[in-house]
Amino acid sequence: MDALEKLEAAITMVKESRAVPLSASCVVHRGELLGLLDEVTGALPGDFASAKKLLAHREDIIEEGRQSAEKLIAHAREEVARMVEQTAIVAAAREEVDAYIDSRLATLEVILNKTLEAVNRGRERLAGASDKDVLSQLADD
Prior knowledge:
Blueprint: H1 3-15, E1 18-19, E2 26-27, H2 30-140
Antiparallel strand pairs: 1-2
């Protein structure tokens, strides 16, 4: 039993002891109670030493947790900075890609317009040639 349990046992012994009639006193076995109290006084220095070690260890754990949290925060800040930089790089790359695609589409548009003009001229020539053929056939008749 630790010191607290022994103190609780002593309190229980007093509570459960026989009351002296017409008084607030009780009859307690002196030897048992003194034995429990001696055990309490013997256990207290050990319990205090354990408590001091626990408190000292607690401070170490708190400090270790604080250092770990600082490292984690620093790592998170670095990660955020890296992600922001990557986002900026991606945005710049996207702008470059959009500009490249736009220039390629503009070039394709010019080529298609020239091709369409050539097709239209060719169709006009064919239409004009067939009109001449019809006129020449009429002239031959």
